[in-house]
Amino acid sequence: MIVTVTMNPALDKTAEIARLEPRRLNRLSGVRVDAGGKGVNVSKMIKVLGGESVCTGFVGGGAGQELCERIERMGIRHRFLTVAGVTRTNLKIMDADSGLTELNEPGVAVTGAEMDALLEQTKDLAGPDGIVVLSGSLPQNAEAGTYRVFAEALKEAGCTVLADADGDSFKKAIEAPPDVIKPNRFELLQYYGLPQDTPDGELPSLCRKFLERGVAWVILSLGENGAMFFTKDRCVRAGTLPVEVRSTVGAGDSMVGAAAYALEKRMSFEETAKLAMAASIGAVTTEGTNAPSRELVGELMSRIALEEI
Ligand SMILES: Nc1ncnc2c1ncn2[C@@H]1O[C@H](COP(=O)(O)OP(=O)(O)OP(=O)(O)O)[C@@H](O)[C@H]1O
Ligand SMILES: [Mg+2]
Fold it and tell me: Which of 196, 240, 306 best tests ligand 1's pocket when mutated (most atoms within 8 Å of CB)?
């Protein structure tokens, strides 16, 4: 079973406004609410591909209940642990003039015992050959090494672990190490403490260093410039395809979802890379973090070209 762990999920509230003005009363229109959180996005992609996953993590209060109901309505299983506090609502304001302003709440705090319970729950849900996706931010009071602890324990239990994190959480997780990581360009360079204008030519050697540390798959996503895929046997680069871009938010999550699905189906290196590309390119054609249709992913997949690095 694929388990997606979202420790700090959210209700994403997207609203429109003609012009956002600070220090004024701003009236929002076109307000829509979606189940958010990176693991939830990963599960949405897995579902589109015809796979099954179960979402877990922490929820609290009425917003937590609403989040669970929304996930259920999408036909996705969930087993969240209920904790004190209220699941966050993240407000995204689309301003016709100045673009997107995001106001993200910190989310719930959890105790050490609750974190231990989540790890046990994740192990139980995944089973011995399970695939576990750890993605997104941690609860506000959690140790930065939380993903490392989870990844080590889950690997020990026989699971395959995919981690998609940034900053300190990513840095510490690498010490486990996870089986699959998917940094974007920013996260990779931040990890190595390198300037963001480091030339692309230096990226492959930085990714290969993770393989030496025991990561089996490194997927480096480069936004509209495509992605690179590294295993000890093969390294390739793929460009994107021209599509109508609606929202790039969650494109990386779709890529992770497709990779988890491909791993479960034991797809070849080539198929895995192509599916991950197609799923993420498809994802940018939809509003918000909605997943693309399976037909579109299939059509895009047939057009992806891989180039050896
Ligand atoms: N503008 C775009 N056009 C086509 N494909 C895109 C575009 N932006 C992203 N993608 C696809 O999505 C993949 C992941 O994108 P990106 O590198 O932005 O991930 P990310 O920063 O992790 O995103 P997020 O964390 O919001 O999910 C890219 O490798 C690419 O295949
Ligand atoms: Mg990302």
Answer: 240
